[in-house]
Amino acid sequence: MLYRLEIENFSSIRDPQVLDLTIAPNVPDPDCRFAPVFPGSELRAPKVVALFGANASGKTTVLRALEFLFTLVRDSAQRTVPGFPCERFNDDASRSRPIRMAVELGGAMNLSHDVLRRMEAGEDVEYGVYRYELVLEVVDGLPQRILTEALRQKPKGQGKWQRVFERSEDGQVKDSKTFPLSGFHHLLNTLRPNVSVISSFALFQHPAASLFVEEARKAFFLVGNANLVQDKSVIDFLGASPDLLPLLNKELNRIDVGVEGMRFEPTPNGPQPMFKHSGLELEMPWALESHGTRSFIRMFPALAITLRRGGLCVIDEFDLAIHPLVLPEITRWFYDCLNKNPLDAQLWFTCHSASLLDDLNKEEIVLCEKDRDGRTNVYSLMDVKVRRDDNHYRKYLSGVYGGVPKLG
Fold this sequence. Notes:
The protein is an alpha+beta fold. Helices cover 24% and strands 26% of the residues.
C-alpha cells in the first residue's frame, strides 16, 4: 500500500511537495475504504486516492511522478538514449537544481524467493515499509544522470531506516544482506548514469532486484498520452484474455443501458468486438459503440488485473466520457475487501466530476493548486480543517478547499 509521495523540481512542481496519506488508527472505517500500510500495521492508507483541481493545476504531474519512479525501477535498463523522459521546473533558478522524488509503501521485508514461497504457503513472514529515494542531477536545464539512489526498509514500520542498497554520487553502490552484490560487482562497471540499480541488476537476474522489478510491474499507468490507449491494443489484449471477457460483460450489463454483452468476431485483422443491444436486430461494431462504453472498456483491463493480483492502478482523467453515476460504482470495487479487492489494491486518479466528492471521504481527496508563478501545490484534504459530515461537493465548488478555477 503506497502511503507517501515526495516531489521536488519536477515539471510544474517547483518546491518540495510531501503527500502523506497515512490515517490514524482511531479514524472510523465502516465501508472498508482504508487498508493497513502492511499486514498488521496500525497505520492505514486509502484504497482510493482522487486528485482534483483546475485545468493545468498539476494533477497529471503528480501521476507522472509516480509513473516515472516505477518505470525507472522496472524498465530503465531497456532505454537506449541518454537522459530521462522528464523535465525540471521552468524557471532560471531551477536550471541547475536537482530533481528529487521519493515514495514509501508497505511490503514483505528482506524480499527473496524463500520469503515469497513462505507467503504463498500461507506462512507468516515479516512485513514493514520501504522507502525509495531518487535524486537526478540537472545540468543546463536538462536532467543528466542519477546523482543518488537508495532503497531502505523499516521492519514492522519501527525504528530507523535500514539500507537495502545505496548509490552515491561517485557511482559506488553499498549493498546489504537483502541486496547482496556478491557475484555481481562487475555490473557496477557498466551501470549507466540514467539507469536504476534495480533495473540494471534485474537485467542480469540478480535475485532481489528481479523480485523488486516484478513488484513494480504490479503498477498500471494510464497517464497523459498513455491514457489515450490505442483501441487495437486493448481489443487485442482482451481477445487474448478470455478470462476477462465474462467479467467485462457482467459489468457492462450492469452499468450500460441496453448493452447485453460483447463478443469477438474473428477476422483476418484480428478479433473484432461486436456488441449486442437490447431491442436491436444486428450487433454493433466497435466504431459505432458509444464513446463512454469504449472509454470504460479501455480502462477495464488495468482495473480488473490490479484488483485480481493487488498493486496500484493509476488513471488520468478517470471521468473521461464516463457517467458521474458510474464513477462511484468503480471506486466501490476497491472497497469490496471480501470479493473484488481481497489484496487491498489501490486506485489513484485525476478527476473533474465534482459530484464524485460526495462519495469520497476526506482521506481520499487530494487537491492540486497552481499559484501565479506557475508552481503546483499538492495537499490532502486531511491537511485542511474539514468536518467529517461536510458537503465536499458544495464546499469544493465554493472555493473553501481551494483547487478550483479563478474566473474573471
